[in-house]
Specification:
Low-confidence stretches: none
Radius of gyration: 28 Å
Number of helices: 4
Mean pLDDT: 84
Distance between the termini: 79 Å
Shape: flat
Oligomer: single chain
Strand order of the largest sheet: 1-2-3-4-5-6
Largest sheet: 6 strands, antiparallel
Structural class: alpha+beta
Number of domains: 1
Order of helices and strands: HHHEEEHEEE
Strand content: 25-35%
């Protein structure tokens, strides 16, 4: 048994020494760093900010990285714009793509979502004791510009109702 353990240690050390050998004259190659960005980085930059709900951000990212050329209906010669609908359980994004995959228009509409903390603070500032009954989020993007970003919130306090509209247009 003592010899077996000694042989096992010897072969383990020999394996480590052999693993440290030169790579048979193969020189490592250093590659230049590249930056890959989605085609629709302008869309993401315009619609996504600190006032964008998390569920919306996830769908916006999918829309920005979507490859319209992967669809069977896609024909580069025949199409001026191509509409694609991205759905979530509580809303959707309808995005219009050009033949090269750029988003030229997008309409986002969601209902009863978890509002970002900054928006919640705006809603409940001065509305202590009120509860949010429902909310709607809408965003319109057109030709590289955010044209509308809005929350509509309904608050209740017993039998009283209060409606608020928060605009985040640029």
């Amino acid at each position: 048994m003592k010899q077996f353990v000694t042989l096992l240690i010897f072969f383990s050390l020999a394996g480590l020494v052999l693993a440290q050998e030169d790579n048979d004259g193969i020189d490592p190659v250093t590659l230049d760093a590249i930056t890959v960005s989605p085609v629709n980085v302008d869309y993401l930059r315009e619609v996504n900010d600190g006032n964008t709900p998390e569920v919306v951000q996830e769908l916006q990212f999918k829309a920005a990285n979507f490859d319209v050329t992967s669809l069977s209906e896609y024909d580069k010669k025949d199409i001026h714009t191509f509409d694609v609908v991205f759905k979530a359980s509580n809303g959707d994004i309808i995005a219009s793509y050009t033949a090269d995959g750029s988003i030229v228009k997008a309409f986002e509409k969601f209902e009863n979502i978890v509002l970002p903390m900054t928006v919640r603070k705006m809603v409940f500032d001065g509305n202590d004791g009120w509860k949010m009954e429902k909310n709607h989020y809408m965003c319109v993007f057109s030709e590289d510009n955010l044209t509308k970003k809005q929350y509509k919130v309904t608050l209740t306090d017993g039998h009283q109702k209060k409606k608020m509209t928060l605009n985040f247009d640029k």
